[in-house]
Every structure is written in structure tokens, then in C-alpha cells.
Amino acid sequence: MAASALELGAAFTAGDVPSVDLFALATQAASDRGGIAYALATINLKPLAGLTGTDVERDFRINAPGAAKAAQADLPTLKAGTKPSSVVLFSIVAVANGFASQASILMAKGAVEGPMRALAAHCNLRFLLCPVVCT
Predict the structure, then answer these.
(1) Phi then psi for 64, rounded to 5 degrees?
(2) CATH 3.40.50.720 is held by the domain 34-134
(3) Cα 41 from Cα 45, distance rounded (Å)
(4) 23 with 16: CB under 8 angstroms?
(5) Rounded distance, CA 41 to CA 64, Å?
(6) Residue 98 — left, alpha, or beta (φ > 0 → left; ψ -120 to 50 → alpha)?
(7) How many CB atoms are closer than 10 A to CB 30?
(8) Buried b (16+ CB within 10 A) or exposed e, 101-130
(9) How far is Cα 23 from Cα 14, in angstroms, rounded to an integer?
(10) Residue 88 near residue 35 (C-beta atoms within 8 A)
(11) pTM for the complete prediction?
(12) Rounded Cα distance, 72 and 31, in Å
């Protein structure tokens, strides 16, 4: 990702999602870039019957609240902007289609849409794009 960021002239921040400082550092690095992309994911290839509480909690924490925290940290920059901005999140096609062996990630990625809809509604008078890319 660092090479892609360099090629695009974008900022790149790597870190551990539970870290308190991660989102502040990423926002600071991207302050003049016009938006953020939260390109983080987990993949647990287990059916619903094989999941543990830890599996579900970890996948959810990294995907849904992590995406919300990323957008929330960048909100002041996004709202202050005078040019179009974007917050890009990633989901998976399986959320709509369902795959038996991806129960935990389907729950987590399905929850990513909520924060984006809320952010788009919050910034409805701004130039803000909030796509959720399904891969």
C-alpha cells in the first residue's frame, strides 16, 4: 500500500486498529489530501456454527467501529474542505449474496454501511462522497 500511496501522491498510515493514536495520525497525514480510504479487513472462513465469540468480536471491531472511527477522526477536515472529499470503505459482495463459510465477516462488513450512511447524512450540505466498495 505504501508504494500505491506514493504513486498516487497520497498519504499512507499503517497501525493497529485498537491503538488510540492510529486515527489521529492517519488524519494528520491526510489533512490536505481530500479524503480517506479505510482499507482494512479480516477474513474468517468459518460457518456460523464454528464461530467463537472472540472471532465475531474481533472481526466486528476491526471492520465496523474501525471504519466509523476513521471517518469520525477525519470529520473536521472533511467538513472544513472547500473541494470535494471522499471517505472510501470496503465491503464484500458476499454481504448481499451470503456465503456459508464467511458468517463473521458478513456480519462485520454488513455493519460498515451504517456509519457511511450516517456520515453522508451528517455532511449532506458538503461535497462529500461516501462509497462503500464491494470486492
Answers:
(1) -80, -60
(2) yes
(3) 13
(4) no
(5) 10
(6) left
(7) 20
(8) ebbbbbbbbbbbbebbeebbeebeeeebeb
(9) 10
(10) yes
(11) 0.70
(12) 13
Q: Find, among 61, 12, 58, 19, the residue nearest to 39 by Cα.
A: 12
Bridge pairing between strands 128-129 and 85-91: parallel
For residue 32, pLDDT over 70 is answered with no
- SS3 of the chain: the string is CHHHHHHHCCCCCCCCCCCCCHHHHHHHHCCCCCEEEECCCCCCCECHHHCCHHHHHHHHHHHHHHHHHHHHHHHHHHHHCCCCEEEEEEECCHHHHCCCCEHHHHHHHHCCHHHHHHHHHHCCCCCEECCEEEC
Give 62-85 pLDDT, tens digit per residue. Answer: 888 888 887 887 777 777 766 667
Provide the CA 34 distance to its chain's centre, in angstroms.
16
Nearest to 42 by CA among 97, 88, 93, 108: 108
